[in-house]
Structure formats: C-alpha cells, structure tokens
Amino acid sequence: MALDAISTPTSVEAVPHESRVSFVINGNEADAGTAIEIKAAPGVGKALYITHIILGSDDADAHPHLQDEDDNVLFGPLFSTVEGPILSHKFERPLKVVTNKALELKAAAAGNVFIYVEGAIAKG
Questions:
Q1: Which of 15, 50, 53, 86 is the most exposed place for a label (fewest CB within 10 A)?
Q2: Which domains are present in the chain?
Q3: What sign does the dihedral 4-62-112-110 (CA atoms) show?
C-alpha cells in the first residue's frame, strides 16, 4: 500500500528576521465548504510562515484543513467520526507558504470548524 500524498509543504529552519511581522488568527466558520481566505497574500517577495496551528470541528463530516490559495494542503485534514476533536501542532521548524500566497481554511462539507494560527510575514 502506498501513501496518498496530498501535498509536500516546505519546512524551513526559521522565520527570516528581515521585515518580520508576527500575526495570530483565531476564528470559526459554519461553512468552509468553499475556501475562506483567513490571511491575505503578503505581497511580492514576502511569504507567510506558520509556527502553530489548532484546527477543529464539532461536525463529524466537515474534515477541515489549512491550504494556500492554490489549494495546496498545508495542514490537515482533521478526520473524525465524532464531534469535537482538535488537531494541534507547534512547529519546531515553521511551514513556509509559497511566496505571495494567501492562507485559506477549507472543509469537505458545511459544518462548524474553528482555526487558530500563529505565524509571521517575512521576506520569502
């Protein structure tokens, strides 16, 4: 049996210090069946760096995940047959979103999902 790889996010040694601006996103959505932009593309030459994620849902069919604007999965999905689980990770090595790409929350179906993301914007 082979792994069905859905993406290969880039893990970097550290967030660059030049022009670094930290951010936190905390929110919920009743229907992320259509991708919802949660952090805009940072601009030419800059990238988003993800350092901590908490992803959850109280709907067993939602299966939320974090992706970039090109639908490349960065974290998740959270698969569960029960309500209320979470998926949490603090990255020792940050995930870098492709330069000048937005961050989105997406789910397989309508249902309550929540997201908490810590990270930074810096030169890409």
A1: 86
A2: 16-123 (2.60.120)
A3: positive
